[in-house]
Amino acid sequence: MPDAATLAVLQDLLTYTILAILLGVVVYWLFAPVLEDGLLASEGNVLVRPYGWQDGLAVMLLLAMLTSNVWSNQGGASAEPLQPGAESTGSPMDQAFSIALGSGFMLLMGMALISYLRVFRQLDPGEMFGLRVMPFQRVVLLACLAGLPIFLFVTALSYISNELLTDVWHDLTPQAPVKIFQESGHLVVQGLLAISAVVVAPLAEELLFRGYVYGVIKRYTDSYFAAAASALLFALVHLHIGTLLPLFALGLILAAAYELSGSLLMPICIHAFFNAASTALILAGYGT
Fold first, then answer.
1. Residue 259 and residue 102 in contact, taking contact as beta carbons nearer than 8 Å
2. Tens of pLDDT, residues 146-185
3. Given phi > 0 = left and psi -120 to 50 = alpha, else beta, which region is 75?
4. pTM of the model
5. How many helices (H) and strands (E) does the chain have?
6. Per-residue DSSP letter, 200
């Protein structure tokens, strides 16, 4: 659970990030004629042209929901939306219920987004997210080949980040779900956490952050700005200072994988590989 100091830092970083995104959109809009009316946004393999002002408002609403705990919690947070089961107290069944509820919330947001695109915007999610660009077997193969070096790089960056923060930040304990996984010893709780980490989180987080937030921001800026903005938001909503840098780096890598492949399945599979490898390390006793 984030304490008051952590929430204060996260609130400041989130405020600056949102202001930077809004300022960036305005600057790109002002210079659009110089940039040949959005030439930068058309680069790459991610389809963004069909997005409109409605999607800008939808992203603002989505971000308000995803970051609501940053503003509402005061040093004793409830479980953050993208980290189900953040409460480490209570019986194993209470923890299991909390995890299931958090996972259900993430999936519900993902389904709501798909419904919005299909019903209200009359867009095909499969086309928008490039789900038919590459055969699934090829995506899985490439994701596995890329997953190991990505995992090693982000893990090394996490170690370096924690070493640098040791004398600076007061709380570098693992994220709440990791602590629950380590301390519970209950197969139901650990199983739900593993499913949430390896299946639910990659699907929901990639759909929301890379698939939609990245795409809409890119529509009004360019791929570089959108990648940095979406990666920083992705890191901040996890409500953990010690993992800000590695999660930001992971977000950039996943955005690059999406852009290079043109298929959201690629970052989903890489994310799943990353979380599966992390879960395996925790089981092996290297969770800290």
1. no
2. 999 999 999 999 999 999 988 888 777 877 777 777 777 7
3. left
4. 0.89
5. 13, 0
6. I
